[in-house]
Amino acid sequence: MRPALLGMYGRKNPQTKKGAKEELLRDKQMLIQEIRSAHANWVAAQAHFEFALDKDQIDYAIYAMEAAEKRFEMLIKQAKRLNLSMIDTDRLLEV
């Protein structure tokens, strides 16, 4: 347990528990925004690959596409660990 959640004599402090819930909500909101941004970057990297002409551009496009895909996958795994469903995203972002 984080020290911030402990009140006097090691008991839970209800006010900091509320703060922890708000912090978790902010973290989820930021994660949703990061996932959307990462997906947009991945789609853009795929489009860049489609229009690459010479060998250097193709190599760069492949590198950028793989990096964007890995970042997107990493963020999705993080969302799964937080039990975050994309169905809930609109509700979380409205708050």
TrEMBL record:
This is DUF2508 family protein. It comes from the Bacteria. Residues 1-20 are annotated as: Disordered. It comes from Paenibacillus aceris. InterPro entries: DUF2508.
